[in-house]
Write a structure and sequence with these properties.
Elements (H helix, E strand, L loop, with lengths): L2 E2 L1 H8 L3 H9 L7 E3 L2 E5 L10 E2 L2 E2 L27 H6 L5 H13 L3 H8 L8 H17 L3 H16 L6 H17 L11 H4 L5 H17 L3 H13 L6 H17 L3 H15 L6 H6 L6 H9 L1 H26 L9 H11 L4 H8 L3 H15 L14
Antiparallel strand pairs: 1-3, 2-3, 4-5
């Protein structure tokens, strides 16, 4: 694809450079990409229309064909910002609930669940649906991180009950329902609801940042179905369409790509995506996702992050232990599938690769340890799980 600069687009569309920059930051130009600090705009891109006008007349909020879903839902996730400017971006928001919800998101995604819980509690019964749903969703996952399972269940149930009470089931309500229910089911590896609207029905109703995260969830779902090629195709396509400008969804998209490429034994591609996620996350300390995905990343954190950033690695592992303990309390009883609970993170990563068919030599080369050390780890894992054969590991490992 050929790209043009902001200045070239401004000249082509006969508007100011500043307005083109604004369109890029707001995600209103399809297919844009970020090259360093500059925007690349597809040469075939069409000039965005003024959202306030259509055919020379003012358009009301209700006459748009694709209404925004609950304006204010997960505002930080749905805001483009430069890595390293997350807090600046929040501080620039107008004082009020939207800004406070954005801080709650930041505290959760930066590995501060206690602070996120304390702040989210104030909005669990907020009359504004967008803020209430945001608070409930963050409250649920933050409580998983601190082992308060009943509080997590309460928040997820509150979301479902509130949505179910809406008798009209307007398209925007169905969209947010699909997003919340599908996301919570997939990310907790729980059975999906019996009825779920097709993705093409709700994805167009979501604003750009939420749509990018919803596509991450869809890619994660395909990963669980072991359709790795299709999953990574969604990730690469979503990133190519400009999802990189929304740091939080972009981090999660890159992480699921790591999972896919490790399953395909394409370690160089996996490392590329891990470092891309790390480059986005580290300037703002948005490390929660790395801890949540540790068990699925196939030892990539040990191979890449631990040698280069040992102190950050320790913090990620602390998040992993904390989150996985709460996750298992919901996952194991709900699915009847016991995931190994008493392994160290290194033992778990080694066992995950062994369960996927990696040899001791392949695991050793990947994790920068000796084959003898790998053999010792596997032996310890078998003893802890009280099994005799390597082939039985699949029953206790994540997909």
């Amino acid at each position: 694809m050929e790209y043009i600069t902001v200045q070239e687009a401004a000249k082509k569309w006969k508007i100011s450079d500043r307005l083109v920059q604004k369109y890029c930051a707001e995600g209103r130009i399809d297919g844009i990409r970020k090259f360093g600090k500059s925007w690349g705009i597809p040469s075939s891109a069409v000039k965005p229309q003024d959202p306030r006008k259509e055919g020379g007349r003012t358009v009301s909020q209700h006459s748009r064909t694709q209404p925004e879903v609950f304006p204010g839902f997960m505002p930080l996730m749905n805001t483009p910002f430069e890595p390293g400017r997350c807090l600046d971006c929040i501080n620039e928001m107008e004082t009020g609930p939207r800004k406070e919800i954005a801080f709650i998101e930041y505290h959760y995604f930066s590995g501060q669940p206690e602070k996120a819980i304390q702040e989210a509690e104030l909005y669990l019964t907020c009359p504004d649906a967008a803020y209430r749903f945001s608070a409930c969703l963050i409250y649920a996952y933050a409580n998983l991180s601190v082992g308060q399972i009943q509080h997590a269940r309460y928040a997820l149930t509150e979301i479902k009950n509130t949505l179910a009470a809406n008798a009209e089931k307007a398209p925007c309500v169905r969209a947010i329902e699909a997003f919340v229910v599908f996301a919570s089911s997939v990310l907790l590896h729980l059975p999906l609801p019996e009825e779920m609207p097709p993705a093409q029905e709700f994805l167009p109703l979501l604003p750009s940042g939420l749509r990018a995260f919803a596509l991450y969830v869809q890619a994660h779902y395909l990963y669980l179905k072991e359709d790795y090629a299709k999953s990574v195709g969604i990730v690469e396509g979503t990133l190519d369409m400009g999802a990189e400008r929304y740091p939080i969804p972009a981090i999660y998209l890159h992480l699921v790509a790591v999972m896919d490429y490790m399953s395909l034994k394409q370690t160089q591609q996996a490392q590329k995506h891990l470092l891309a996620a790390w480059e986005i996350a580290r300037p703002d300390d948005l490390i929660e996702g790395f801890g949540e995905h540790h068990g699925l990343l196939g030892g990539m954190l040990e191979a890449v992050i631990k040698p280069g950033w040992p102190e950050d690695f320790k913090r990620i592992i602390a998040i992993t232990y904390r989150f996985s303990a709460g996750w298992r309390k919901i996952h194991n009883p709900a699915t009847g599938h016991e995931v190994a609970d008493d392994l160290t993170t290194t033992e778990f990563a080694t066992a995950m690769l062994a369960a996927r068919g990696w040899t001791n030599q392949e695991i050793a080369a990947h994790m920068n340890i000796s084959a003898h050390t790998v053999k010792r780890y596997i032996s310890t894992v078998l003893q802890k799980l009280d099994i005799r054969q390597r082939q039985e590991l699949k029953k206790y490992m994540l997909k």
